Amino acid sequence: MRLDVDNLACRRSGRRIFAGLTFALEPGGALAVTGRNGAGKSSLLAILCGRLRPDAGRITVVGVGEATLPECLHAVGHRDGLKSALTAGENLTFARDLLGAARLTPRDALERMGLGHAHDLPVAYLSAGQRRRVALARLLVCARPLWLLDEPTAALDVASQEVLARLMAEHRAGGGLVIAATHQALGLTDAMELRIEPSGGEPAPPADEGLEDWT
Amino acid sequence: MTRAILALLARDLRLASRVGGSGALSLVFFLMIVALVPFALGPDLNLLSRIGPAILWLSAVLATLIGLDRLFQADEEDGSLDLMTAAPVPLEGVVLAKVVAHWLTTGLPLTLASPLFGLLVALDGTAMASTAATLAVGTPALSFIGAVGAALTASIRRGGLILAVLVLPLMIPTLIFGVSAAQAATGGTVPFLVPLAVLAGLTLIAAVVGTVAAAAALRWPE
């Protein structure tokens, strides 16, 4: 799929968060959204998710048939969307049945995230980092072309960050798209950077030299 | 789409059966209110059996409110609602699945238990059967009306009280026709089926309006 965002503006509670945001993502592309705290990184992701109405601008998706943008994406954010009372396996089975387009089984997806032993454990027993890994395992149980990641490495240890980097590389190699809001280098090679400036400033032009140097 | 709705229904039923679920709680709350009334009114069996259907209906309305405040709020807080927005199902389908799950865990147990609890307020067989029948027809309306309030207060912390203030007035028509149908069965000038048909109509209207309104409230929280 191809994603075009044109002149997007966001307003929350009457206050303008950002304006004039324009970018395009080709298959296999990645976008790192950066900016100071409160610049509107999460708001941008919320607009893409369909949870927030844009103030102006247009979002176009090409090459997914009839599906709407929210139906083409996976979102993993601060709120992990897991039910504490259910086991990790039950949470993933529910996500797979709800979202459709099943790929890996929940057990295999958890194995990939190094959490195979947690399949039958209630999520309430897991640590913050383990919960985040269960939420990331959702990316693997259903196939969706666009991954929206909000601070995906928060609470993750170094080994898991490497697993995540590898997953994102595989996803992009298969023609998938990744948009990540982050303060840290994620190991996204050749990613464009979109810096959201306060009070509706122009976004920085895409930088092609990778993201190793902007931590 | 059906698969997603069934998955949602199964998940909510499973959650209600786990620790912290509100399934059994509303039934116990129902029992509490019904049991308190005879203590308050005294052992006047004629009075109790006359107002019995009204007491059962009032208790059912209040017991429906238990767990209603968490209907969407719990999913809003932990991000599950974002997951549901991304599902290939319109939000109306999500609301429908969650309300049906809510009714299966509160309205249906209340209906099934009402003949038993009718003993506490000295109902005879006919009154028990008619009250249970009206509850079966009317409690879905309570769940659907409540869902609108639950969707509006989903992002408000401690919105339970606001929810009650919002939805209780909207439940008045259901309460009126529920009680009058239950009482029409044991005597009176109106045949049983007339208020029951109005009650069924109210439930159908609530099912449509409630589903659409709750989905609209969830769609754009700001």
UniProtKB/TrEMBL annotation, chain A:
It comes from the Bacteria. Belongs to the ABC transporter superfamily. Pfam families: ABC_tran (PF00005). Residues 3-215 form the ABC transporter domain. The keyword GTP-binding does not apply. Gene3D superfamilies: P-loop containing nucleotide triphosphate hydrolases (3.40.50.300). Residues 196-215 are annotated as: Disordered. The lineage of its organism: Bacteria, Pseudomonadati, Pseudomonadota, Alphaproteobacteria, Hyphomicrobiales. NCBIfam families: ccmA. The keyword ATP-binding applies. This is Heme exporter protein A. InterPro entries: AAA+_ATPase, ABC_transporter-like_ATP-bd, ABC_transporter-like_CS, ABC_transptr_haem_export_CcmA, P-loop_NTPase. Keywords: ATP-binding, Cytochrome c-type biogenesis, Membrane, Nucleotide-binding, Translocase, Transport.
UniProtKB/TrEMBL annotation, chain B:
It comes from the Bacteria. It is a multi-pass membrane protein. It is found in: Cell inner membrane. Pfam families: CcmB (PF03379). InterPro entries: Cyt_c_biogenesis_CcmB, Cyt_c_CcmB_bac. Keywords: Cell inner membrane, Cell membrane, Cytochrome c-type biogenesis, Membrane, Transmembrane, Transmembrane helix, Transport. The chain crosses the membrane at residues 21-41, 47-68, 89-112, 132-154, 161-186, 192-218. Belongs to the CcmB/CycW/HelB family. Required for the export of heme to the periplasm for the biogenesis of c-type cytochromes. This is Heme exporter protein B. The lineage of its organism: Bacteria, Pseudomonadati, Pseudomonadota, Alphaproteobacteria, Hyphomicrobiales.
